[in-house]
Design brief:
The chain is of the alpha/beta class. The protein has 2 domains: 107 residues, Response regulator (Rossmann fold, 3-Layer(aba) Sandwich); 72 residues, Orthogonal Bundle (Arc Repressor Mutant, subunit A). Helix content is 48%, strand content 11%. The chain has a 5-stranded parallel beta sheet with strand order 2-1-3-4-5. It is elongated, with a radius of gyration of 19 Å.
Length: 203
């Protein structure tokens, strides 16, 4: 896929709330992606089924249409509710009952393994600065705070870890949010991993 192409992702699951939540996380992870939801396999087939870079598919739809998804094994991620599914064998799976932090971690792992050679490019900042320029704007202390946020620490724990006041931590978080334009913890975690500040395995 050329770098200029927008990756297209299909979510195939009848659970509307699950689709909305997964779409939100994926849009934070891959802002340039076009994400479409389908309530059934038939809806996917009525679209253009071979155009997608990834298929996030419910386990029961996967098992009903295994032949289709096995042909697209590197692109197919089965959505489970934490139940053991040994029949999936080597097919990537995502447990949708995990906490937000754990979901972000697992999606980042899937993303990194699936795009090690051809990563999705992040869009340029709205003000025209490059990602490198944005990253340079973060101070060393702000980067330390960002990494600890990505590890799941709360403000008090960050203050204790860095031996700074709670007020200073809050100030650093405010500065990080303003500089990066990212407000959510999941978004900051994704940013930290995608820019090499922390490995997905360490969050």
């Amino acid at each position: 896929m050329p770098d200029t192409a927008m990756p297209e992702i299909a979510i195939i699951d009848p659970n509307t709330l699950l689709c909305l939540g997964l779409r939100n996380l994926l849009q934070e992870l891959i802002p340039v992606a076009v994400i479409r939801s389908f309530r059934s396999f038939d809806e996917l087939m009525a679209d253009t089924p071979d155009m997608y870079a990834h298929y996030f598919v419910s386990s029961h739809i996967y098992f009903q249409h295994t032949a289709f998804f096995l042909e697209r094994r590197p692109k197919s991620i089965v959505l489970t509710a934490g139940e053991p599914l040994p029949q999936l064998n080597a097919v990537p799976a995502l447990n949708t009952c995990l906490s937000e932090q754990e979901l972000v971690k697992h999606i980042l792992r899937l993303h990194q393994h699936g795009h090690a050679e051809h990563p999705h490019r992040l869009p340029a900042p709205a003000d025209g600065r490059s990602e490198r320029e944005l990253t340079r704007d973060l101070s060393t202390r702000e980067i330390e705070v960002l990494v600890l946020i990505a590890k799941g620490l709360i403000n008090k724990e960050i203050a204790d870890k860095l031996h700074i006041s709670l007020t200073t931590v809050i100030s650093h978080r405010k500065n990080i949010t303003e500089k990066l334009g990212i407000k959510s913890v999941s978004g900051l975690t994704i940013y930290a991993v995608m820019h090499g500040y922390i490995e997905a395995d360490r969050i």
